[in-house]
Design a protein that fits this description.
Keywords: DNA-binding, Transcription, Transcription regulation. By secondary structure, the protein is α+β, with helices and mostly antiparallel strands. Helix content is about 40%, strand content about 20%. The protein is elongated, with a radius of gyration of 19 Å. The chain starts with 6 loop residues before the first helix and ends with a helix.
């Protein structure tokens, strides 16, 4: 630190870097230890960062990077979508269903990229910007399963009629992308999702995760 720098700003930036380097977030105590400051300082830093949506805290109190970090640069969000689009296009065309990339925004799931198939007679209309609770819909459930570290699941989530009557969803979480919680999935008008769809969304999720690393 020099006379020209701000200690508080430096600590805030260090908090963001620490959170960006973990998939599961950090507690106030963990941040306090890593920063070498008391818990009161950490609480103040987190409260300020939360006001700007740069940090969010989950139900368990663990701090994570917020989507406000993406909004800092107007080109960052489009870059995330651009990185995901090839895999989403391939998924939509292969399955014949609307494919989407969904990220966590606070307690909600936010669709940030959507691709509809070109060859089907009909498909579900699903738009970028669509929000829903994390505990409803395949996209959110896949994210929550990854957050809990569930290992007894097949690696993807399947739902029916939770967000739209008659529509089913399949989604797999993004894994290994520091600072981002999200999923890749499809939504289709069917009562029963074909067996191959689950593994296929897992493949697409891996492709998107590789593109975002």
């Amino acid at each position: 630190m020099t006379a020209e720098t701000s200690q508080t700003l430096d600590r805030g930036l260090r908090v963001l870097k620490l959170l960006a380097d973990t998939d599961h977030g950090l507690t106030v105590t963990e941040l306090s230890t890593r920063l070498g400051v008391n818990r009161t300082v950490v609480y103040r830093l987190l409260a300020t960062l939360e006001q700007h949506a740069l940090v969010r805290r989950d139900i368990g109190g663990r701090a994570r990077v917020g989507l406000g970090v993406l909004r800092l640069g107007r080109q960052v969000h489009p870059l995330v979508r651009e990185a995901a689009l090839p895999a989403l296009r391939s998924l939509a065309e292969d399955i014949g269903a609307t494919a989407h990339l969904t990220l966590v925004d606070g307690t909600e799931a936010l669709a940030v990229a959507v691709v509809e198939p070109t060859w089907t007679d009909y498909h579900v209309a699903y738009r970028a910007g669509f929000r829903h609770p994390l505990d409803r819909g395949a996209a959110g459930r896949a994210i929550l399963a990854a957050r809990r570290g569930e290992t007894d699941s097949p690696g993807y989530a399947l739902t029916h009629g939770e967000l739209e009557a008659g529509a089913s969803g399949a989604a797999a979480p993004l894994l290994g992308v520091l600072g981002i919680e999200g999923s890749v999935g499809v939504v289709m008008l069917t009562d029963t999702i074909p067996d191959r769809v689950g593994p296929r969304v897992m493949e697409a999720a891996k492709e998107v995760a590789d593109a975002l690393r």
